[in-house]
């Protein structure tokens, strides 16, 4: 069976196409963009159309309708069944998955869903770069566009804590939540002192897989050596206490009970969660 993919105003680059693997070898690829230089910039295409995306789409539909096709032919995925499926699974947390937690490590999906239930609804979330970023971004809800700070343009690990400090100062009415990997947390540990000195009631969630996980999952399958991107177990909770944080080590969902206690208390010191997460898969 042959298929066609139309990229409407999107780059079709390695990140959105999972390094090209999302598009089959026999697929006809069409790209529509108002910038001619964008057509075929990241991958070969069979047809490039220069034009405004909305106008091009409307004219495409008009051509189809004028050819005598019925409206049902153009309905595509806009069906009652699709609407019901989206309503039932609009959030990632509503999509079934196999929980890979054990007594030593917690599945980061399970961790994120539990935190989504525990943390205050009025929150602002800052996400560091790295393998960890898929889970808080997918599973932690935010009240609006000002509740999510996801600045990956630097493509650099270690900026998430500083990002969240800025967000906390900008929105002091909300609970600031920093989602970090252990590599980024260790790289920016000095900012834990900043959080404490500023008196920010912040929750810092460290997804601790004892590695730079993105490098492990990107390069490991191709046989590259990983000795420089994995590290020995680190008690990040103990480091946080040294900076004046309250801290908890989490290996199971039951270990999150102190987080509820912290939220119910005065929150006079920030809280760090050293989550020992499973590490068999990438967050994508």
Describe this structure in words.
By secondary structure, the protein is α/β, with parallel strands linked by helices. It contains ten helices and nine strands. The strands form two sheets. Strands 5-4-6-7-9-8 form a six-stranded parallel sheet, with helices on both faces. The chain has a three-stranded parallel sheet with strand order 1-2-3, with no helix packed on it. β8, α10 and β9 (271-276) form a beta-alpha-beta unit.
Give a short synopsis of this structure.
This protein has 284 residues and is α/β, with parallel strands linked by helices. It has ten helices and nine strands. The protein is 31% helix and 16% strand.
What distinguishing features does this structure have?
9 strands; six-stranded parallel beta sheet; alpha/beta; 284 residues
Topology:
Blueprint: E1 4-8, E2 28-33, E3 47-50, H1 53-66, H2 80-88, H3 108-118, E4 123-127, H4 134-139, E5 148-149, H5 160-170, E6 175-181, H6 182-187, H7 190-198, E7 203-208, H8 213-219, H9 236-242, E8 246-250, H10 257-264, E9 271-276
Parallel strand pairs: 1-2, 2-3, 4-5, 4-6, 6-7, 7-9, 8-9
């Amino acid at each position: 069976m042959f298929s066609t993919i139309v990229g409407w105003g999107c780059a079709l680059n390695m990140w959105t196409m999972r390094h090209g693997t999302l598009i089959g070898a026999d697929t006809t690829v069409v790209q529509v963009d108002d910038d001619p230089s964008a057509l075929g910039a990241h991958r070969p295409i069979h047809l490039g159309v220069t034009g405004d995306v909305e106008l091009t789409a409307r004219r495409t539909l008009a051509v189809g309708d004028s050819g005598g096709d019925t409206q049902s032919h153009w309905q595509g995925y806009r069906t009652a069944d699709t609407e019901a499926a989206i309503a039932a699974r609009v959030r990632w947390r509503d999509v079934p998955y196999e929980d890979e937690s054990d007594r030593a490590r917690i599945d980061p999906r399970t961790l994120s869903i539990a935190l989504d239930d525990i943390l205050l609804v009025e929150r602002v979330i800052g996400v560091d770069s790295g393998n960890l970023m898929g889970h808080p971004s997918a599973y932690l809800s935010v009240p609006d566009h000002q509740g999510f700070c996801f600045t990956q343009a630097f493509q650099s690990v270690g900026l998430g804590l500083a990002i969240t400090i800025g967000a906390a100062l900008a929105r002091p009415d909300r609970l600031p939540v920093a989602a970090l990997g252990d590599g980024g947390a260790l790289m920016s540990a000095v900012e834990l002192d900043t959080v404490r000195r500023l008196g920010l009631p912040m929750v810092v969630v460290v997804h601790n897989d004892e590695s730079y996980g993105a490098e492990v999952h990107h390069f490991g399958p191709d046989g590259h050596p990983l000795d420089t991107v994995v590290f020995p177990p680190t008690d990040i909770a103990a480091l946080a206490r040294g900076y004046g944080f309250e801290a908890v080590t989490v290996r199971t969902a039951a270990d999150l009970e102190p987080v509820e206690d912290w939220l119910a208390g005065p929150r006079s010191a920030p809280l760090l969660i050293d989550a020992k997460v499973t590490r068999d898969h990438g967050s994508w």
